[in-house]
Predict the structure.
Amino acid sequence: MEKIGEKCGVFGIYGKGLDVSRLTFFGLYALQHRGQESSGISSTDGNEIFCHKNNGLVSQVFNEEIIKSLKGHIAIGHNRYSTSSGSGAEHAQPVEVKDGSITLVHNGNIPSVVKLQKILKKKGINITDVSDSKIITELLHCLIKEGKNFEKAVEEIFPLLIGSFSILIMNKEKIIAIRDSFGIRPLSIAKLNGGYVFASETCAFHPIGAVYFRDVEPGEMVIVDESGLRIKQIMKGTQKLDIFEFVYFSRPDSELLGQSVYEVRKRFGIRLAKEYKIKADVIIPVPETAIPVAIGYSNASGIPFEMGLIKSRYIHRTFIEPEQHIREQGVKLKLAPLKEEIENKSIIIVDDSIVRGTTSKQMVKMLFETGAREVHFLVSSPPVKFPDFYGIDLPIQKHLLANGKTIKEMRDYLGCTSLSFLSFNGMIEATHIPKDKFCTSCFSGEYPIDISERKKDFKS
């Protein structure tokens, strides 16, 4: 399916007497939607750091024997989405250093690493053509080798990280969590049996019995060790959560800034019903993200809700290349239409966003082939007009469907009866959170964190 890709999900746990590697496995399992390319866990018993990572889903990378080998009372884990920096196993996280003293997991993106590379070069370390996560880890390790303690080294590197980051770093004694001063990527804390848990989303807490405590606030450093939890504000924080967390990325059972993701998506649908009064026989969501949106629209409009598209539950990322005929099936490989809910009907199809539009075009074609009389396409976010530089895998601007096109031109390309997008103000109001708490760069072209030389990559 053509979707925007998240860069990662991170999870960490500190707890004496807890089976931390097993709990991290289940935490990563709950965060699988944030990355399906690779997975990894590192743990420590206070004497040694153990690590295992590889390409594949969480259930493919780990087994009982591996989990048992990841001993200790501290662990961090990572799910990765393949991005432009590469998809091989060498890009899997946690990132390790040669002497095995620290490991790091990162959700986000540092648009420019030139300054970091220059600092490393001055210290005699020449790193090129590697990920921002690797550069951060190596610089941190370099500072520690020079004599700075773990916490001071993290504090010193913090202002040099110009971009979005929710990072967990582990040594043999503690976990340190840091979040950029705009809080673009989420990171939450929970309590569990006297220990503490970190996760990209709150949905990872329930499966392991952890109880939400608070978020890591923008600009904070949170340290957990045998003394407990300590918090230090490194830089002044200004909350700018990426609104795409509500639109698409986060699981519906997560909470962000005090709001239920499920309820916000339902309100997207209610708002769409106010903005666009369409006469139709049935409203159908593109599973899974758009389901609550369609429920909200149905409740507000009175148009019946039906699951007219069935998603194949077990088709995830596969390393088996599809046979040519199957590849040509495109959207049909993952979505099957229910003829009885579509044939001879005027339908509304709801999706969370449109990126390139190629999958949406295939979907419209499939619905007409199944016998739909009309296909009205509703989108629960505004047109995506700008690239992202903060940790999501968005195409370059010229490949975005909405780039330079009118609604009519987009509708003609998709082949649908009508095409309507949720208004920008409608999206913001449906969150029940003030606009200034969000990063809306994909819709507005406003980038709260300096993107340096990447400014040349788009036109406002």
User: Anything to note?
Assistant: The chain has two domains: 5-239, 260-432. The first strand starts at residue 5 and ends at 6. Residues 261-275 form the longest helix (15 residues).
